[in-house]
Design goal:
Elements lengths: L2 E4 L7 H6 L7 H15 L5 E4 L8 H8 L5 E5 L8 H7 L1 E5 L3 E3 L3 E3 L13 E4 L12 E3 L10 E2 H8 L3 H6 L8
Parallel strand pairs: 1-2, 2-3, 3-4, 6-7, 7-8
Antiparallel strand pairs: 1-9, 5-6
């Protein structure tokens, strides 16, 4: 089982193609390609933590779409995720968080970047900024535009941050229950 992170799918959102310079003809092609790339990387028992801005569509269509995605889906809601927690659980998210959370004692998971200065020992895994990245090693933007529309594995994140084996051991605890 692996953890993966992703943000800002914006499924069914035609305007995001222009706004974020996405390389798709229309939202249908975008939705299909995001799902295809997700399923190439994510296995059935993996956990994918989506950091928000999932889709612009009605409940049944999203439920049908998410059923085609590999892995167990968790959500940290974004500024465009305006439904209730139960609505998101009904469409296929196993866990739903409406606030940033601490992951493995070291990573802050949020939709929008949270304030960190260079002296803080944390890394903020976030989305919201689409093609833009903050110029600090304390931030990792997992918005799909930055990763060729693939989710980012926790192993990739650890490698980027330079976590050694002892730190990996210290982070081996399970994720807290929601």
């Amino acid at each position: 089982m692996q953890y993966h992170f992703v943000s800002d799918w914006h499924l069914w959102h035609s305007n995001i193609i222009k706004y974020a310079s996405r390389p798709f003809i229309d939202y249908r092609e975008m939705n299909t390609e995001i799902r295809k790339r997700h399923n190439e990387k994510v296995h059935k028992d993996d956990i994918v933590i989506n950091l928000g801005d999932v889709a612009f569509v009605h409940k049944e269509a999203l439920k049908e779409e998410l059923a085609k995605y590999n892995g167990r889906l968790w959500l940290i809601t974004g500024n465009h995720d305006n439904h209730s927690e139960s609505w998101y659980r009904d469409v296929g998210f196993e866990k739903v968080f409406t606030m940033p959370i601490i992951f493995k004692k070291f990573f802050i998971l949020s939709h929008e970047p949270v304030y960190l200065n260079d002296h803080m020992p944390y890394v903020n895994i976030h989305g919201h900024l689409h093609n833009n990245k903050l110029q600090s090693s304390n931030y990792i933007n997992v918005g799909v535009e930055n990763w060729d529309y693939y989710p980012v594995s926790f192993d990739q994140i650890r490698e980027m941050v330079g976590i050694d084996e002892q730190q990996r051991y210290d982070m081996s605890g399970e994720f807290p229950e929601a």
